[in-house]
Specification:
30% helix; 430 residues; alpha+beta; 27% strand; 19 strands; OB fold (Dihydrolipoamide Acetyltransferase, E2P)
Amino acid sequence: MKTTINQVKNYLNKEVTIGGWLANKRSSGKIAFLQLRDGTGFIQGVVVKAEVTEEVFTIAKGLSQESSVYVTGTIVEDTRSPFGYEMQVKNIEVIHEAVDYPITPKEHGTEFLMDHRHLWLRSKRQHAVMKIRNEIIRATYEFFNDNGFIKIDPPILTATSAEGTTDLFHTEYFDQEAYLSQSGQLYLEAAAMAFGKVFSFGPTFRAEKSKTRRHLIEFWMMEPEMAFVEHEESLEVQENYITYIAQSVLKNCELELKTLDRDLDKLKNIQAPFPRITYDEAIKILKEKGFDDIEWGDDFGAPHETAISEDFDKPVFITHYPAELKAFYMKPDPERPEVVLCADLIAPEGYGEIIGGSQRIDDFELMEERYQTHNLTGESYQWYLELRKYGSVPHSGFGVGLERTVAWFSGVKHVRETIPFPRLLNRLYP
């Protein structure tokens, strides 16, 4: 019976065949221990010299790292293994023998590993991170589908910037100038006026020349937009969503979290509601912590976000930023127009901003005024203005950076490990 490693629990004390690769091995004179992987998981195969043919034991002793094999044997329980099972090997068929595999069990430098990212993905640690990433994606679709959202796919090639910045990748669209999308939000607002509650999940591009551990040039973002939803209601959706995916990862990725030595109590503590502070309160906290140069109207960088998060054991919302710091489409607070109805969700443990969101301007005249202030009067933005002309309603939305969330849940310090093939400032290979 051919099966996969993640299904061996269904074949206890039965003989099965697994197709896989040799991740590592060790041996004594009479026993060989093969660390096998097949993409679904890792399992140890035990080859006892007295219980197999001489040919099979010779093959086991001579197998090189990352050689591909069919291994046949009996599945037994193994309480010493985090996986809980191992295989008592009876036969080995070599499919392809790998020679001089470059990533050995010894330590390698980051640049070497990044140059060999196509192979580094095979390692147990990277496998665990990608499985957690996959679970977050799966749970995201589940959460939004179960809560009445429709998935809408915005274009990647656009004629405009979503946030009016210059950090864009330019390209030619026949005889027009175009950009790689930095957000699908504007298009999702249009979709929300058609379907009520929508979300997208796809790649976005930022031409920021940043080398921090939190930044990628190409990353994936989940963006919901919700008609008839105001600022406070949007915050509830955000904290419920983060709680949901955190609990899904805890439930379905226990083995991967253990592989990464993740402190599970930190994830168990991610439970709505989350604390909320205003930008004004955040400034006060920072001054008390010795950030003497920070003034009202200044934006927060990574050190500021980390310092603020230290006062909380859960993610914390920072709300009501100055309007001048935020995008043109954010709605001013009616009681205090110099700040906007927005929030950034700051993760604990120094992982920084995970979500940015706001209530959007729904008044035609105010949006037209913002267009003039931000020099957005061209035809490219006309359709977005028209959303406030034909049946405008209060609406809100937010964006979640997938890779930062994966890093946080996994306990990985740099986002380059949270995407299969990272695009960094000086890296376009492999």
